[in-house]
Each structure stands twice: as structure tokens, then as C-alpha cells.
Write a structure and sequence with these properties.
The structure holds two protein chains of two kinds. Chain A is mainly α. Chain A contains five helices and two strands; from the N terminus they run αααββαα. In chain A, helix 1 packs antiparallel against helix 2, helix 2 packs parallel to helix 5 and helix 3 packs antiparallel against helix 5. Chain B has 22 helices and no strands. The chains are: A mainly alpha, B mainly alpha.
Chain lengths: 164, 439
């Protein structure tokens, strides 16, 4: 299992790097469009929809990595007052619930992507793109999120079992 | 099901899950998926919730959020923020309470560049707090200004939180950014007055100490070298929006480009600086956007079940003056802010508040400014405001949580006073927006 989780870690890290690169790309792209418009009176119709889609990609590419890093904000006013054992049990339950919820996103998201591809659904903005290709990142990112939640739940379970 | 019960289930479920320590975004996800199943027609409702994710953030108006954050991260990690702090330090001379005053001024300057209350508090707390305590400043005068000034961050543009609020509440982003300037400056003035007044009444809380004097030539040199270029970046954002030359998204992108150019000119742009800035931006952006994404269905459920219209009907039917209703709404935000995260509060309250605001004919930009003050005040409101814990994290061990609470209270009162002034004198929020150029 260790090999699997090592591969998993490398994958979500690579996805986070891709998210960072996408962020730099959209910054450059918007600046480029402003430059073209003000100095050459040219418009670039692909930049706005691309940057809009990029926001969605950035989030789902980096969400699992951020979860591993403990970067998703929590409200721990009661949680931090619990005894260590109770805290672990609660964490295990909540991580399992979150793993199921994100798992549902994977299931429904995949269903929607397949539906989009089979019916050739397009997203019409300044440019028209196959919706499935853009939407794909939602089930993909949710899959890694679900696995990470499952991993965290399992870690808590192992700790509880170890302490008897 | 009666809308009152729906509202209680949604709100109660959310709060219960948040208290378990589940990340805010996923607490929203669980509640919304369950609500979508039960209220929006089973599997079809669930499908609607999932497809709603797609449209929730693929919006050009949300683009300034990562740009503003990246701009601030670059200024922090390149050390340019610290240089600005040193410049102001040289200008202040030997005035009593200088470190508290410096904290307020730098909070405004750095906060306007960073757009993150927590980051500003953490940075200033790390740099200034040890020095303040070493110089004999009371905990009250050391901790208070460092936490309080975070509230100003949300008002002085550029700020990522303002963009999120404007986007959720369908308020013009540019107008809301500009509208915050005057209330932000007013709040800063109130903070400075408080600190100077306290130093006058209790000089022992801020003892004078030997300060190295710098010749005017040196002060001007460092100002031109380190402070004015940062001011240029702020102008590239606020000025361009105000003059109507660029949209907020374009201004944010040019501001970010300006930060990159500046760090290159100062020879501070290294691989490590870029990596840390981008990593920090991705972290904060994903955290904020994930909450927006998963709670996109929340507003739809409130509308579909009649909860939003029920609350609107109930409130408008009370026949209370709109000002009183508005005050009540802000008090709810303040109360939530003492234990919840700002974006989560927005996601819960905005779908309920905006129909009421429209029904009462309240100016949305004015309301937006008041919301921002209330949201940010919540961050420093004891016992559980997030900034209080950030301060505890950066403070030395001898500073107790009780010290932090005591120090925060006067600044909470000042924030409430500022909110009251903006409430009573709406032009403080709308004056500048009336002078804006059109894009």
C-alpha cells in the first residue's frame, strides 16, 4: 500500500504544480489581452472563456493536495476542546462522510461527463468547447479528494485501533 | 415542509457540521447534497447540484481573487513589504506609541497590497510584536492595533474578499472596491486617534525609547526607492478602476504584472520567491473557491423551498424602518463572525439578505461596505474570531488568550462605531463611486 500512496502523493503534487502553472498562465493571458487591446486595438476572444474555465481547473487540480496540507479552513472551536480519543473518533467519522460526499461527486460527475460526450454537448461562450472536456476535472479532482479523505479516515481508524 | 423548518435544517445542519471540525467547504458539500436530494427532487436534484459546480466559478468577475492574492504574495515573499515597513519606521521618529502607530499605518499599506487580513496580522505580528513587548509596550497597545488593522484591509482595495462578496451579491466589483476607501480611511483615523489618546492618558503603556534619527535626505531616498513603487502598484489597481480605464479583472492582472516587474527591478525575483508566492496563492484561492463551488446549490435550495422569499416576506412585513432591519442583519453577521469563517458567512447570509435588500430598496454598494465591516469585525470578535487565534499563534507564550481578547475589544468597539457612522452617513460609502469614470 505504501507504494500506492507514494504514487498518489506524487500525482496530487504534480496536479498542484499544474494548478500553479495555470494560475501564471491566466495572469499572463489577461495581461496579453489588455496589451493587444490598448496598443494594437485587437481582441482575443479565446482568453476570457479560457481563464474562466481555468479557475475551475485550478480548484479541482489542487483541492486534494490542499486537503493533505491541511489548507482547507475549519472551525475548530469545539473540536479542539475534545479529548484526543474522542477527537480521533469524530475525525474518522467526518472524514468518512466527506469521502462519501466527494465520492458521490465522482459518480455523478462521471455520469454527466459521459452524457456530455455521448450527446456532444457544448458550452457556448465567446468560443464553443465540448462541455465534457472542461467538466472532466470535477470528477477527476473529486476522485483524488475522496481518496485523500478515505486515507485520513483510515489513518484515524488505525490510530484508534492501535491505542485500543 | 414549512420554509422555517427548511431554514432551520439547512442552517442547523451547517453549523453542526462546522463544529465537528470538518473543513468548511466539505460541510457545505454534505449539507447541500443532502438538501438537493430531499428538496430538489432526488437524483435529478443531486445532478443539478453537481452541474451547478460548473457555472459557480467559471466567471470573469472572480478572476481578480487569485490576482490580488498573487500580487500580495509576491510583495511579501520578495521582501518588498518589509522594506516599506522600514521606510515608515524611519519617518515616525520618536513619537510616543510609535510602534502601535507604525502597526496601523503598515497594516493599511501592506493590507492594501496583500488583500488578506490573516496574512497581514501574521506578518506584522511576527515582525513588530516582539519589538513592542521588548520596548515595554503594554499587551493592550501591542496586540490591539496588530489585530484591529486587519479590518481595514477589507475596506481599502485591492481585496480578494470584496471581489467574492461583490460576485455573490451581484454588486458591481469596481464600485464596491472603490466604495471601501473612505470608510477604510475613516476607520484608520479612528484607530490612530484611539492609540494616540490612550498614549496621552496612559503614557506608561507606550514608553518612549531612543530612536535613531535619519536625515531628511535619507528618508526621502528610501521613500522614493521602496515606498513609492509600491504605491504605483496600488495605483495600477485602484487608479485604473477609478478612472474607468480598466475593469477590476484587468486592473488586478496589471497590478500583478506590476508586482512581477517590481520584484525583477529590485532583483528579488528568484525561483524560490515565485514558487512560494504561487504556492501561497493556490492555497488561498482553492480554499476560497472550493467553498463557493460546493455551496453554489445553497442559494438555489433556499429559493426553491421558499425559504428566501419566506424570510424576505417576514422581514419586510415587520414594518420596521429599513435602517433597523439592516442593523439587525449586520448584528447577525457580527455574531456569526465570532465563530465562523468569512466566506462561509457570506455563503450562508447573502442568498437570504440580498432579496431583503432589494425589497427594502437599500443601495447595494452601501450594504456591501457595511457587510465588509461586519464580516471583518467578526474576525477580531472574542471569543473565537479567526484573527485572535492567528495572533495567539505568532505571539510569545507569555501572551494569554485573555490578553488577546482584552486587547481586541476596543478595536471591535471602534469597528462598530465606524459601521454606525457608515450606516448613518451613507455618502461615506457612495461618494467616491459617484465620481468614478465609466469603462
Amino acid at each position: 500500500m505504501k507504494g500506492f500512496w507514494r504514487l498518489f502523493d506524487r500525482t496530487i503534487e504534480a496536479m498542484a504544480v499544474l494548478a500553479g502553472a495555470t494560475l501564471l498562465f491566466i495572469t499572463g493571458a489577461v495581461c496579453y489581452s489588455i496589451f493587444l487591446r490598448y496598443f494594437f486595438r485587437k481582441t482575443t476572444i479565446w482568453i476570457i472563456p479560457t481563464t474562466e474555465y481555468a479557475l475551475l481547473w485550478i480548484v479541482f487540480l489542487a483541492a486534494a493536495w490542499l486537503l493533505r496540507e491541511g489548507g482547507h479552513i475549519t472551525t475548530d472551536i469545539l473540536h479542539c476542546r475534545l479529548q484526543e480519543g474522542h477527537k480521533r473518533i469524530l475525525d474518522m467519522i467526518m472524514h468518512s462522510v466527506a469521502a462519501l460526499a466527494t465520492g458521490l461527486l465522482v459518480l455523478l460527475g462521471t455520469w454527466h461527463v459521459l452524457d456530455c460526450f455521448s450527446n456532444q454537448v457544448t458550452d457556448v461562450r465567446a468560443v464553443t468547447v465540448p462541455k465534457g472536456a472542461v467538466f472532466l476535472v470535477i470528477p477527476m479532482g473529486s476522485f483524488f479528494l475522496s481518496l485523500q479523505f478515505f486515507r485520513q479516515a483510515w489513518r484515524e481508524f488505525s490510530q484508534i485501533r492501535k491505542r485500543g | 415542509m414549512p420554509w422555517e423548518l427548511t431554514l432551520c435544517l439547512l442552517f442547523g445542519g451547517m453549523v453542526a457540521l462546522l463544529l465537528t471540525g470538518m473543513p468548511v467547504a466539505f460541510a457545505f458539500l454534505v449539507v447541500n447534497l443532502m438538501a438537493a436530494y430531499f428538496f430538489l427532487g432526488g437524483t435529478a436534484g443531486l445532478m443539478g447540484a453537481v452541474t451547478g459546480v460548473f457555472t459557480s466559478i467559471t466567471s470573469f468577475t472572480l478572476l481578480p481573487v487569485p490576482f490580488f492574492i498573487l500580487m500580495g504574495e509576491l510583495v511579501f515573499h520578495s521582501g518588498l513589504g518589509l522594506e516599506a515597513l522600514n521606510v515608515m519606521d524611519k519617518w515616525l521618529g520618536g513619537v510616543r506609541g510609535r510602534l502601535s502607530i507604525l502597526a496601523i499605518i503598515m497594516g493599511v499599506i501592506i493590507g492594501s497590497l496583500s488583500g488578506s487580513t490573516i496574512a497581514t496580522c501574521a506578518l506584522l505580528g511576527t515582525i513588530l510584536l516582539p519589538d513592542m513587548l521588548k520596548k515595554g509596550y503594554s499587551k493592550h497597545l501591542s496586540l490591539g492595533p496588530l489585530m484591529g488593522v486587519g479590518t481595514v484591509d477589507a475596506l481599502i482595495p485591492p481585496n480578494a474578499l470584496t471581489v467574492v462578496l461583490a460576485s455573490l451579491a451581484a454588486i458591481d466589483v469596481g464600485q464596491l472596491l472603490i466604495a471601501g476607501i473612505l470608510p477604510g480611511l475613516l476607520m484608520t483615523a479612528l484607530y490612530l486617534l484611539y492609540v494616540m489618546g490612550w498614549c496621552y492618558l496612559k503614557p506608561q503603556d507606550a514608553p518612549l525609547y531612543q530612536v535613531q534619527e535619519f536625515p531628511l535626505r535619507e528618508k526621502l531616498r528610501v521613500t522614493f526607492l521602496y515606498l513609492l513603487p509600491l504605491g504605483f502598484i496600488v495605483f495600477m489597481v485602484i487608479g485604473l478602476i477609478f478612472l474607468g480605464v480598466a475593469t477590476p479583472t484587468e486592473a488586478a492582472a496589471t497590478g500583478t504584472l506590476g508586482s512581477f516587474i517590481l520584484t525583477i527591478l529590485y532583483r528579488r525575483l528568484s525561483w524560490e520567491t515565485t514558487r512560494r508566492a504561487v504556492q501561497g496563492t493556490v492555497k488561498v484561492t482553492v480554499m476560497i473557491f472550493m467553498i463557493i463551488i460546493v455551496s453554489s446549490t445553497y442559494g438555489e435550495i433556499l429559493a426553491f423551498t421558499g425559504a428566501a422569499s419566506g424570510v424576505t416576506g417576514l422581514i419586510t412585513g415587520l414594518r420596521f424602518p429599513p435602517l433597523l432591519i439592516l442593523t439587525g442583519m449586520l448584528l447577525v453577521v457580527l455574531a456569526l463572525g465570532s465563530f465562523m469563517e468569512t466566506v462561509a458567512i457570506m455563503m450562508i447570509t447573502i442568498p437570504i439578505y440580498m432579496p431583503v435588500i432589494k425589497a427594502l430598496g437599500i443601495e447595494p454598494v452601501w450594504f456591501g461596505v457595511l457587510m465588509l465591516i461586519a464580516l471583518e469585525t467578526g474576525l477580531i470578535t472574542p471569543p473565537f474570531g479567526v484573527t485572535l487565534f492567528v495572533m495567539k499563534g505568532v505571539a510569545p507564550p507569555e501572551v494569554s488568550m485573555a490578553d488577546i481578547w482584552k486587547a481586541a475589544i476596543p478595536f471591535v468597539i471602534i469597528d462598530v462605531l465606524c459601521m454606525f457612522i457608515v450606516l448613518m452617513v451613507p455618502w461615506t460609502a457612495t461618494l467616491l463611486t459617484g465620481l468614478m469614470g465609466t469603462q
